[in-house]
Every structure is written in structure tokens, then in C-alpha cells.
Amino acid sequence: MSVELFFAIVGTLAGVLGLAVATYYGAMSLGLKSGTRVRGTYNSVSSVECEDKYVSNVTLENLKDRAVVIFGISLQVGRSNYIVLDEFDDEPLILQPFQAVQRSYGPIIDYTVNGQRIMFNSQLWDNSVKKRLVLDTSDGKYIVKESLRPWKVSHEAMRNDYTAVAHARRTTYKGETYGGNVKFLIHINADQPDEIVVPLHRHEMSYHKFRGFSFTPATLQTKETLQAFLEQQRDGGKFTPKDFFILDLDASRAKQHWFTSPSPTMEAPNLSWYEYHVEGRRATKQHWKTIRENNEQVRKSKEEQAAPPQPMSPQDSQDGTVI
Question: Cα separations (Å) of 296 from 15, 286, 299, 302, 304?
Fold first, then answer.
């Protein structure tokens, strides 16, 4: 094969490949700009504020490169029932390309059809009853067939007992966040134009927060000692604000039962691939096996307690009396 023929074949193949790639991306682009494709999900909850189960929120995501004009959102329950969740007749909801929106709803009074109350509790609780979101769009009725299935870290913890899910805890006051080393907050001139919140840490960083005087470990021992010390400095003219109050963050955290833990502090482990994926899965299987065995024992124990007592035979009676 000559060099000219080889390069001609390579050029032809490259041209065919380029045409195929361009055709593919062209078809993909055309598909994104035509039709409607929306996926979504909803949450139904119960509340002490109402007798009926209701939809608390709806999330919709537009998967096309074209806007979707929505005039209403309904939940179809079974084949013949529709619960109207939202109506946008005057101002339609416009779902922009690749945009996601969430609509939230509060507790309801009841459901009515032509003024007559109708109950949906049994069907909303029954997973065998088909339920799906239906949109009233500018292109007509659209049934949301695809569901949002977000990944949750709690699911990972259920699959592997070696998964540690840690939550960062914070203290927030007046829109500001304060860390664990902040022991007190001094709120000066509350609700005034010159109000200020001064954080006091549990170490020497806070000893020189104000001019004219310094804090000591004894003055920062408790809220009462701090209050007495500031009042003493105010009487001496070194602490000028007349209106102030102190927030004890340690006491507030203790009431929330999360800042201090009776168990000792642990260091986050750095597991190997084998430890996490092999040993962790093995421990998880054993854990769930133990749970199933315990549940089975509890079930049998309840059945034995609920079973009626067997009548005693003459031979079983202690005194020999026929019953």
C-alpha cells in the first residue's frame, strides 16, 4: 500500500468520524430544544394541625433547553382523582431551561369536591395506589414520569456500619455565627442605633476586649461573676454603656443537649479500602442479621403471651382434683 493511499484512507475515516460526531451532537442539540421533559418529586406529610395528609412541597426540574410555561400543578391519586396543588392562571410559573424550582405548602383545612368534603388519607398512605404529578402547561397536559432521586449520606450509613456521618453544630445569634470557644455574648444597647454584640472567648483572647480594664479567668468564670464585674466597672466610669445584658452560650448549649457529650471525644478514623468496603459490609450484614433475629424473638414472645392458656388436665393438677 502506497503512502498516498494510506493517507487517503485515514483522511476518509477521519471525515466520516467527524461527520458522525457532528450528526450525533446535532441530534442531541435538537432533542434538547424540542418537546418537554420535566422530572419532579413531592413529599406528603401528616400534621397535628389538620386531620388530612397533605403535600408539603413539590420540586420540579426542567431537563430541556427550552422554557416550560406551567399554569397549574396537580397530584393524580389513583385513576380518577386529582388534588390541585397550585394554580397560576394570572401569572404562569415559567420553568427556565435546566432550572429547578420548589413550591412549599402548609397544612390544609380539608379537601372538597363541589362543596362536599372528600378524604384522601387512605389512598395517600397506601403505596399500592398510583400517585403522580400532573402539570397544566402551554403544550397541554404533561405527566411527570421521571422522579428526582437525590443521594443522601444517611443511605450510605445504612449500607455500611463503618460510615460516620458527622454534623457541624453552630450557635447563631442575631444572624451571626459563634464557635465553641465563645463563652459569653455581651449585647450592648439592644435595639438602638449603636447596638453591638461583643463575644467573649474562654481564653486570654478576650481579656483585653475593652479599654480601661481587663478580664481575668475569675471574672469569666460564670455569668454572675461577669455581670458583677461589668457593673463594678460601670460604677467606676470605665464601662460606659448603661444598657447591656449577657448571654451564657455554654448554658444555652447545655439545654440543647448537643454541645457536651457524656462519651469521650474520638478521632476520625482513616480506613483503608479493605477495611471500609469489605470489613464494613461484613459488619453491616451481621448487624442486620442480629436485628432480624431479635425481632423474631420479640414476635414469638408476643405470640406466646397473647395465646390463651391451655386447660389443665387431671394428671397435671397438683392436688389430684379433677377440674
Answer: 68, 15, 5, 10, 12
Tell if the pTM clears 0.90, that is, is over it.
Answer: no
Q: What is the pLDDT at residue 260?
A: 52
Burial state string for 184-199 with b = 16 or more CB within 10 A and e = fewer than 16:
bbbbbeeeeeeeeeeb
| Torsion angle defined by CA atoms of residues 158, 160, 166 and 167, in that order, rounded to the nearest 10 degrees | -20
Nearest one of 18, 37, 38, 195 to 101, comparing CA atoms: 38
Query: 55 - beta bridge partners?
Result: 44
DSSP states along 106-171? ---S-EEETTEEE--HHHHH-TTS-EEEEEEETTEEEE--EE-----HHHHHHH-TT--------E
- Distance (Å) of CA 123 to CA 31, 44, 52, 62, 115: 37, 12, 11, 28, 20
Per-residue model confidence as pLDDT tens digits over 244-289: 899 998 888 777 665 555 567 788 889 999 999 999 999 999 999 9
pLDDT bucket at 322, cuts 50 / 70 / 90: very low
CA distance 240 to 202: 23
Angle at 62 between CA 59 and CA 66, to 5 degrees: 150
